[in-house]
Write a structure and sequence with these properties.
Largest sheet: 2 strands, antiparallel
Helix content: over 70%
Structural class: mainly alpha
Order of helices and strands: HHHEEHHHHH
Number of domains: 2
Number of helices: 8
Low-confidence stretches: none
Mean pLDDT: 76
Distance between the termini: 139 Å
Number of strands: 2
Oligomer: single chain
Length: 252
């Protein structure tokens, strides 16, 4: 009778073990949290199997149970396939979006300048002015910041004038090719140097020289704008005179 019970227990634990291993194959990729519980069940199953089924000493059955538990942990550990660290790939630098050309961009707005070139000159110029403004806002000295912002206001007025009268681009070519670039470099270096924790006497002298130069730059920009405005006045005056002469000749 006792032998029959032992055989029944042996068969029962065998069925449990097979069932656990079968379920494990399905659960190992689904439920990581059950790995410990399943391994513990297997360990206890083998412990009882060795202790009651094979009638071995308790320490031996315990060792068998521990080994079964460890084997279960290895078996149920999540697969690392697909989880290996991929080498970091640096994203490609963002390319500046170029505006799509419109049908009228090839049209000449004045001698030697197309509408597309006019748009590009004004767009790039205003972007550069915006960079100068951003630097100016970081400068702590109030009067210097105000001077730079006034320069930027005049520069934007000049680019607005280009839109109204594209011929003025040739008149102000030195402004677009030299003065604006130089102003951006001077303002940027001034801001960087003025934020230094320690300034030598030479550095202080250089900053002072820049502050004085900003007044000259502001006057130069204003003179440039005035020149463009006067140019428009002369053009208008010439057109009025042509119209007046035409009226006189036709006797109207």
């Amino acid at each position: 009778m006792e032998l029959s019970i032992n055989l029944l227990l042996l068969l029962l634990f065998g069925v449990i073990t097979i069932t656990v291993f079968t379920l494990a194959g399905w659960w190992r990729y689904k439920m990581r949290a059950l790995s410990f519980i399943l391994s513990l069940v297997i360990g206890l199953t083998f412990f009882v199997l060795f202790a009651e089924g094979f009638r071995v000493a308790a320490p031996v059955a315990g060792v068998a149970g521990v080994i079964s538990f460890i084997a279960g942990m290895f078996m149920f550990s999540p697969s690392k396939k697909g989880k290996e660290k991929q080498p970091k790939v640096k994203p490609a630098p963002k390319q500046k979006k170029q505006p799509f050309p419109t049908p009228g961009d090839q049209e000449f707005v004045c001698d030697g300048i197309t509408r597309g070139e006019l748009k590009s000159i004004v767009r790039n110029g205003k972007e550069q002015v915006k960079r100068i403004e951003d630097v100016a806002l970081k400068i702590m000295k109030h009067n210097v910041r105000v001077d730079i912002l006034e320069i930027c206001t005049t520069a934007n007025d000049i680019f607005d004038d280009f839109v109204k009268d594209p011929k003025d681009i040739k008149v102000a070519r030195r402004f677009t090719l030299y003065y604006l670039d130089t102003t951006e470099r001077i303002v940027t270096k001034y801001q960087q140097l003025s934020n230094a924790p320690y300034l030598s006497d030479d550095a202080k002298s250089t900053l002072k020289n820049v502050e004085n130069t900003l007044g000259m730059i502001k006057d130069t920009f204003r003179k440039q704008l005035k020149k463009l405005t006067e140019n428009d006045v002369l053009d208008l005056d010439a057109e009025v005179k042509v119209l007046q002469n035409t009226i006189k000749q036709e006797g109207i």
